[in-house]
């Protein structure tokens, strides 16, 4: 048994040396740099935004349409703009990312503006309602991150406790839930309102999860978030309650007939979120768990597809 333990230790050290060597090779190093740039450019978030529209289409039983493309482009635009306005606090929360964005401001600005222009052009094909819904998160995003509030207190919506989180959640929940309907030409019913409320709660949860990761930088900058004001452990309790609320919304909607029973297939993704919240620790795990939380929307979409037994049509 002792010999086996020593052998396993030697093999583990050899494996680590091989992995370190592999990381130093040009293809792997280039892949890591490309991945880092994709994360910093919010490409991953843009894919998540498109997958959330797919979830909405599955919940409301409508074909996947151009709303997914609009969501991809708007997410790309808004988050890149937000990252440029947050360079100061990100110097504490994410120094490497802040340095990268600070050295390529023109690239991120061009990506933000170009993506939004393309999104507006695409949304115009869906009519005035789709165009207005596409414009909505951009306008609210500028109000959220710009310094315009009067008085001696916080000068940005982002810095006001709960108001900033609510603004972000509302800015995303409205177009996510309603854009697919606008492109499909369908009316807004009770099911769509339930989906809007569901994504509002899920977005509040996601924002506060990331606020746990950013708690030190936010505290240094005087930004009032739940983790800063309440602490990490009480915030974890709030996140558990938000998960329970979002699941209760789906159950109630199915019970009332607002959504088809297949909507309950989204429950495993909520369970996945509960696991992440249970592991949450600002000192050790927050950054990794925030990355893992990106899997929630694709997991939800996959569960809904499996439960329905078919891939939704593309309009």
TrEMBL record:
Any one GO cellular component localisation term in the record: plasma membrane
Pfam families: UbiA
Transmembrane segments: 53-79, 107-125, 131-149, 161-183, 189-210, 248-277, 289-311
Domain of life (superkingdom): Archaea
Membrane topology according to the record: Multi-pass membrane protein
Compartments where located: Cell membrane
GO molecular function: transferase activity, transferring alkyl or aryl (other than methyl) groups
Record's keyword terms, sorted: Membrane, Transferase, Transmembrane, Transmembrane helix
Major localization listed first in the record, in broad terms: membrane
Protein name, per record: Prenyltransferase
Organism: Halalkalicoccus jeotgali (strain DSM 18796 / CECT 7217 / JCM 14584 / KCTC 4019 / B3)
Gene: ubiA
């Amino acid at each position: 048994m002792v010999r086996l333990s020593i052998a396993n230790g030697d093999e583990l050290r050899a494996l680590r040396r091989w992995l370190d060597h592999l990381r130093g090779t040009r293809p792997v190093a280039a892949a890591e740099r490309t991945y880092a740039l994709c994360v910093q450019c919010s490409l991953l978030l843009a894919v998540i935004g498109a997958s959330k529209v797919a979830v909405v289409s599955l919940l409301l039983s409508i074909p996947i349409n151009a709303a997914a493309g609009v969501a991809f482009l708007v997410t790309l635009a808004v988050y890149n703009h937000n990252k440029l306005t947050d360079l100061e606090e990100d110097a504490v929360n994410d120094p490497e990312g802040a340095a990268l964005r600070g050295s390529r401001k023109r690239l991120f600005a061009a990506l933000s503006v170009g993506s939004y222009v393309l999104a507006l052009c695409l949304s115009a094909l869906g009519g005035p309602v789709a165009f207005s819904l596409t414009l909505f998160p951009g306008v609210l995003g500028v109000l959220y991150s710009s310094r315009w509030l009067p008085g001696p207190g916080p000068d940005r919506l982002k810095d006001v406790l709960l108001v900033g989180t609510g603004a972000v959640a509302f800015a995303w929940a409205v177009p996510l839930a309603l854009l697919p309907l606008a492109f499909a030409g369908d009316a807004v019913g009770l099911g769509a309102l339930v989906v809007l409320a569901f994504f509002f709660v899920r977005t509040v949860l996601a924002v506060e999860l990331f606020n746990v990761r950013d708690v030190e930088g936010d505290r240094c900058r005087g930004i009032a978030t739940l983790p800063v004001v309440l602490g990490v452990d009480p915030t974890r309790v709030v996140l558990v309650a938000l998960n329970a609320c979002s699941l209760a919304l789906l159950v109630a909607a199915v019970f009332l007939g607002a959504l088809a029973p297949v909507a309950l297939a989204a429950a495993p993704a909520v369970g996945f979120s509960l696991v992440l919240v249970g592991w949450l620790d600002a000192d050790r795990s927050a950054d990794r768990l925030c990355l893992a939380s990106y899997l929630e929307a694709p997991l939800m979409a996959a569960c809904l597809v499996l439960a329905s037994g078919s891939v939704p049509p593309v309009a």
